[in-house]
Structures are given as structure tokens and as C-alpha cells.
Design goal:
Blueprint: H1 7-36, H2 41-64, E1 71-75, H3 81-89, E2 94-99, H4 102-114, E3 121-125, E4 138-144, H5 153-163, E5 164-175, H6 191-194, E6 200-207, E7 210-219
Parallel strand pairs: 1-2, 1-4, 2-3, 4-5
Antiparallel strand pairs: 5-7, 6-7
Helix pairs in contact: 2-3
Length: 220
Amino acid sequence: MKRRWPVAAVAVAASAAAVALSRDRLARAIANVRAFSAPTAGLYDALASPVLDGFFTRVADDVLAGRESARIVEIGAGPGRLASRVAELGRGASVVASDVAPAMLARAASWADRSGVGERVRFVLADVTALPFADASFDAVVTTLSLHHWPDARVGLAEVRRVLRPGGIARVYDIADWVTRFEPGGNRIRGETLFTDGWTKRTEAHVGPVPLLYRADLSV
């Protein structure tokens, strides 16, 4: 005779599994908020990408200026909208999109394929504090709205400098220092002390006298 589990025992086991699954999902959502300010990569893409479309075009134009055949890496590529835009506008450019979140890279690869540039963008899972690239690998490094999430911004910027070729440029775009206090997990290093040794920093966008976005540049 087959053993039959009591209905109550099955219900308890199912409830425990549901609670464990909910906790796992909640933990992932919290980790994602700390990593990229949204509980899922899909929600981030749906909310942020339409708003930032024009911004990404301007950034791509700037990074490609005089470097149409350059080797370019984006750090913190997220859902890949900027990396694909760079590949679209720079037909001779070689583009690498790196991010610490596998879910973001999956969306980025899907978007590149839909944009017709999937064969010209390489996707790399990477932490900015230990980039898996050789010294002097790239003509340009760009990152947008990512630095305040880096676990160690100073080490990350040292890595940016390390992978730049002589004559290369780096562009860092990020939210103003005062905004980071409202970002879960955002670092608290002020740009005035962070961007030294050849870096220059300027306000990129503001509302009246209130800064919203800055850009920091490095040429080596």
C-alpha cells in the first residue's frame, strides 16, 4: 500500500517552501536595489531607459568624437542601452559592456541583438574593483549613474586608469554628491576628494543652482 501524506503535513511543507521562496526573492530584490536602485533589472530598464534615451545619445557622441574606430568599455552597463548606442553610432568601434549583475547583462545582450549590433558588443561579468582586462586595453572608458554603487570608488577609478591606453579618455557621469545620501548602499565619498590626480569634474545638469548630475573626465 502506498503511503499517503496527511493533508496538513503537505500544506505545512508547501507553506514553508513558499515562505522560503518569498524570502529568497525579497533578498534578491534588496540586493538589486543596492546594486542598481531597482528590485529587478526589467523594472529598472522599463523605468529608466526611456527617460535616459537622449542622454545616452549625447554620451555616445561625446565618447566617439574622434574615436570612431576605438576600443571602448562601458562599466556598469546595466540593460545595455548606452553600449548598443555606441555600437550603432560608431560603426568601426569595438564595444565591451561590463556589469556586476548577470540579469543586467542578459537584458543588455538581448537589447543589442534587437538593435542589430549584437555581434559588435561583447558582454563581460566584471566588478570594477578588479576588471578582467589587461593594462592599457581601451581607448575610452565610460560609466553612467554607476559610480555611487561601486564598493570602493577609489579602487574602481584606479582600475579605470589602469585599463586606459596612452592618449585614452575616461568619462564618468553620476548623480550629484548630495543625492547619494538617499541611495541605498550608495558610497559617501565626495567628488571633491575622489577626483584628483588628473581628473576634472564639472556639473553636467542642474535645476537652478541645485546640481543633479556631474561629469568627471580623465585623459592619459
